[in-house]
Structures are given as C-alpha cells and as structure tokens.
Amino acid sequence: MIIPGYVFRRSDPAIVGVEVLGGVIRPGYPLITAKGREIGKILAIKDNDKSLDIARTGAKVAVSIEGKIMIGRHVDEGEVVYTDVPFDHATKLLNEFRSYISDDEVLTLKEIAELKKKLGLKEYALILNKLGVAQG
Question: Any idea what the Cα angle at residue 78 is, between residues 61 and 58, rounded to 5°?
Fold first, then answer.
C-alpha cells in the first residue's frame, strides 16, 4: 500500500513510501493496481538510506517505481498495489518451490490470482484450484 503522506517524487521515477501488506517485494518486480493497470516496476527499495534486495510483510520502506506513472493521477496515496505475477511464475512457485515459500506468500499469491481471474484471466483459476479455493 502506498502510505499517505509519503510521496517523495510523483514520477520519473516515482518514489513513495509503501507498507508491504503481504508476501515480498524485490527490485525488478512489476506492479499493477487492483483494476489491473500496469504502473511500472520496482527500481529500488530503501530503508533509512540502506538499499534492500527484499522487503517482507510488515516492512515500511521507500520504493522507486520506473514506468509511465504519476502518483495522484494513475495511482493514489493509500491505494493497494500488487506485484504482477505472471501465470507461468505462479505455476512454477506452486509446483517446484511450494516448500520454500511461506504461508503468507501463498495467501498473497492467492489474492493476486483472484484479482487476475476477476480481470478476465481465466487461467488463474488453475492456480486457485491448486490452492484449494472453491470456484463458483
């Protein structure tokens, strides 16, 4: 979630404070809104001027976002954004690396798969089935 009051630069690249509500973020991860709008990718993550390779659930960090994004126009303060997990990556995570990812990361993957399915990407129903989510 983009923390209200922590927008340091609105674009080129956008630099904002975020709270990681679930899962992990890393530089290079693409981001989307709840409506499926691509907003860019994470360039860097910092905590008190220290560069990080990863931020986990509960972390409050600054991120720079590369892309055609303007905070306040394309995405708002307080808005929840998601990592855009491609279908093949989600499948590989569950098939090959399930024992290495936390329950929190699985719940976050489930939430992203539900979002993608609502956006019309029906193949994500396979991910939800693999996670034991009843389809209706």
Answer: 40
